[in-house]
Amino acid sequence: MSQEKFDLTKVHECFDRCLADPIDPDDVLVDAYLEAFKELYKFFSLMGTVFGFVRSDVKEKVEILEKHRQQPNAEKFETIKRMMEYERDAELLAKKDYVSGSRTLLRLHRGLDFIYVFLKRLGELANPDDKTNCVCQTSYNETLAHFHPWLIRKGATVAMYALPNRDQLLEKVCVDAATAIQKLPEMLVVARQVYDRTQDLYTKYDLHGLP
Questions:
Q1: 84 pLDDT above the threshold of 90
Q2: Residues in domain Glycolipid transfer protein (predicted)?
Q3: Looking at the domain assignment, is residue 107 inside a domain?
Q4: Average pLDDT over residues 136-156
Q5: Residue 175 has pLDDT above 50, yes or no
Q6: Is residue 209 part of a domain?
Q7: 2 is a domain residue
Q8: What's the whole-model pTM score?
Q9: Residue-by-residue DSSP string for 140-187
Q10: What is the DSSP string of the chain?
């Protein structure tokens, strides 16, 4: 059975819902955020070994946050801001036997930075047959590479050499490559809004350095 392909329109819709908290216009809704990452997980999976270093981490982090959303105190994890305030006020951020939602989501947040930069540069390639390995490597080096040990960085860089050209890559991973190219700029605008709002929250609560 062929693997289900990546739907960029669905990612756009999910990120759009992330920003629609009726209580606080500066907050981010966690459920919609996780739905977007479930779709992005398909993208990483369809890329094969190239994004193996991201794929397993995304799956694990999404599952952890979904468990928080299924607990009796699930409302504490309904938005990113409420989650941060709850874990801070309950002194859970440094608790050894507790898996912090704020720390877990920080890893996804860093991954979003990478995928945003990569897809943006992918959309800016002038020709359909332009190679994607250079833009992928540059995007990785500017984002996720800062948080990975040397061995992972080396493996990721080697795997990126096998990336095809722009149209071949989109045909491989997307439900509809032509639609993906058309919709990509709109999706990137919303994804950036989600990233920036989340970044501001991590800055406000001084949580960028969570171990």
A1: yes
A2: 29-174
A3: no
A4: 91
A5: yes
A6: no
A7: no
A8: 0.93
A9: HHHTGGGGS-HHHHHHHHHHHTT--BHHHHHHHHBS-HHHHHHHHHHH
A10: -PPPPB-HHHHHHHHHHHT--SS-TT--BHHHHHHHHHHHHHHHHHTGGGGHHHHHHHHHHHHHHHHHTTSTTGGGGSBHHHHHHHHHHTT-TT-TT---HHHHHHHHHHHHHHHHHHHHHHHH-SSTT-BSHHHHHHHHHHTGGGGS-HHHHHHHHHHHTT--BHHHHHHHHBS-HHHHHHHHHHHHHHHHHHHHHHHHHHHHTT-TT--
Residue ranges making up the domain that contains 29: 8-101+115-202
Residue 1: inside a domain: no
Kindly state the tokens that stand for 65: 């946050």
Total structural domains within the chain: 1
CATH number, domain at 97?
1.10.3520.10
Q: What is the dihedral of CA 101, 189, 132, 114, to 10 degrees?
A: -20
What is the amino acid identity at position 57? D
Q: Which residues pair with 174 in a beta bridge?
A: 6
Task: Tell me the sheet residues that pair with 29.
Answer: 79
Longest dimension (CA), the chain: 53
Two tokens at 174?
């997307």
- Nearest to 171, CA basis, from 3, 6, 2: 6
CA 156 to CA 3: how far, in whole Å?
A: 22
